[in-house]
Specification:
- The chain has four domains: about 120 residues, Response regulator (Rossmann fold); about 170 residues, P-loop containing nucleotide triphosphate hydrolases (Rossmann fold, 3-Layer(aba) Sandwich), CATH 3.40.50; about 55 residues, Helicase, Ruva Protein, domain 3, CATH 1.10.8.60; about 70 residues, Orthogonal Bundle (Arc Repressor Mutant, subunit A), CATH 1.10.10.
- The chain has about 475 residues and is an alpha/beta fold.
- It holds the Pfam family Response_reg.
- Keywords: ATP-binding, DNA-binding, Nucleotide-binding, Phosphoprotein, Transcription, Transcription regulation.
- GO terms for molecular function: ATP binding; sequence-specific DNA binding.
Length: about 475
């Protein structure tokens, strides 16, 4: 049944409104000030709020900030001062209408009659969301393929809950955008969303970055620093590449998830935190556990609700939908109306996209930039970037009995050689972060320098590629 909250410090006004609204088939709750009103909001979210502008402990418009504007709650403000300024101010802040004291009860009934009934409103919202899904939009994500519809169903179910989510998918499939969508559809959406790439932070600094540090706690700590868990309090923390987190820190992360408390580096006092963790990996998490990359107890704590993001090659017509969306963004930004020529559309639909959505977005940007000035079509550019040095082989033979560490070393060095020393491309093919690749090469020492003999000549191009890709790393489905 529709529910109305009446906020007014005058008991006669409250009672009169409650009586009129009750006869219209709506339930009511009343409050005499902001404190009581906020208690009522916690007890039950109303469908309509009638609030006086002037209350003993503040203004009725302060309640606007306590409810998300997308919730569909209608605000009717009541004022004892019939001024154009107060009415316009209330309407600008989101009020559906306003009443002047003494309240005309017939006007109240007229307002209630023309307001959309909450049941109808919820049905409209549900219908709109369904229509957007059919058009290929869900939160911040894009795609209308059956594989993505299944992902949308899972996100829609788990987003409103407090459950931890583990996103699994190849590099470039849109794990961060999926995490942002989970946050936007959750009850934490009014608080911070922070994304952390566990593989891009130095192992020596990651504990300080996660939990913060006190001034003087180590060399260079010249001020107090609040970590991600403290800054994301009340919101969502996205831990990408969770398998790249050092094992000793995984123990501390597990404790935070289980107890909700942590300590800054150099601090003896515990700090409470209320953070929802969404983790992601481009590895098979069970294999990562067997390889010692991910603690089993942490895996079980994060894997409350796993969601697998499909690679772009399994999403059919989503390739064309996403490509057009990326091109539309470029056209809008630069005031152009370029389209894809038929040959480019055919090429894109038949290509397997090993770099997934990230690679697709980079390709669209490249095709747009290479177009002739004044042209209404994009350029037809190669789908694969040519390597700076010819390959000497396309396979790596690893004998039975080779350790996993040695197999990793051979595969990484061979891939780097295939890419002519271009570490950005090698990291993309291997499905690891550039920082992780650098760390591995430091471990391999002289072998990596010999293998990447063409590296120096490719550094400029690599730096350029990094600069060009920086603005698109967050792009995903």
């Amino acid at each position: 049944m529709p529910h109305v909250l009446i906020v007014d410090d005058d008991p006669n006004t409250r009672d009169a409104l409650a009586q009129v609204i009750g006869t219209d088939g709506l339930t009511t709750a009343t409050a005499g000030d902001l404190r009581e009103a906020r208690i009522q909001l916690v007890r039950q979210t109303p469908d309509v709020v009638f609030t006086d502008l002037k209350l003993p402990d503040g203004s009725g418009v302060d309640l606007f900030a306590d409810l998300d504007p997308r919730s569909g709650v209608e605000f009717i403000v009541i004022t004892g001062h019939a001024t154009v300024e107060s009415a316009v101010s209330a309407l600008k802040m989101g009020a559906a209408d306003y009443l002047v004291k003494p309240v005309n009860l017939q006007r109240v009934k007229a307002i209630l009659d023309r307001l959309p009934r909450p049941g109808d409103l919820k049905a409209q919202i549900g219908s709109l969301r369904g229509e957007l899904r059919r058009m290929g939009r869900f939160g911040l994500m894009s795609g209308s393929s059956p594989a993505m519809q299944e992902v949308y169903d899972q996100i829609g179910r788990v987003a409103p809950t407090a459950a931890s989510v583990l996103l699994v998918g190849e590099s470039g499939t849109g794990k961060e955008v999926a995490a942002q969508t989970l946050h936007e559809l959750s009850l934490r959406r009014r608080h911070a969303f922070l994304a952390v790439n566990c593989g891009a932070i130095s192992p020596n600094l990651i504990e300080s970055e996660m939990f913060g540090h006190e001034r003087g706690s180590f060399t260079g700590a010249d001020r107090q620093h609040k970590g991600y868990f403290e800054r994301a309090d009340g919101g969502t923390l996205f831990l990408d590449e969770i398998t790249e987190m050092p094992a000793e820190l995984q123990v501390k992360l597990l404790r935070v998830l289980e107890t909700g408390v942590f300590m800054r580096v150099g601090m003896a006092k515990e700090i409470e935190t209320d953070v929802r963790v969404i983790a992601a990996t481009n590895r098979d998490p069970e294999e990562a556990v067997l390889e010692g990359k991910l603690r089993l107890d942490l895996y079980h704590r994060l894997n409350v609700f796993p969601i697998s993001l499909p690679p772009l090659r399994e999403r059919g017509s989503d390739v064309g939908l996403l490509a057009q969306a990326f091109l539309d963004e470029l056209n809008e930004a630069h005031g152009t109306k370029r389209q894809f020529p038929p040959t480019v559309k055919e090429m894109m639909s038949s290509y397997p996209w090993p770099g997934n959505v990230r690679e697709l977005k980079n390709y669209v940007q490249r095709a747009y930039i290479m177009a002739s000035p004044g042209s209404n079509t994009t350029a037809t550019v190669p789908l694969q970037i040519s390597l700076s040095k010819p390959s000497t082989g396309t396979a790596v033979t690893i004998p039975f009995g080779t350790s996993l560490a040695e197999a990793d070393r051979q595969l990484i060095l061979a891939t780097l050689e295939q890419c002519g020393g271009v570490k950005t491309r090698a990291a993309e093919i291997l499905g690891i972060s550039l920082k992780t690749l650098y760390n591995r090469l430091v471990e391999y020492g002289d072998d990596s320098k010999k293998t990447a003999s063409g590296e120096a000549s490719s550094d400029a191009g690599e730096a350029s590629a990094e600069a060009g890709g920086a603005g698109t790393r967050g792009a995903a489905a």
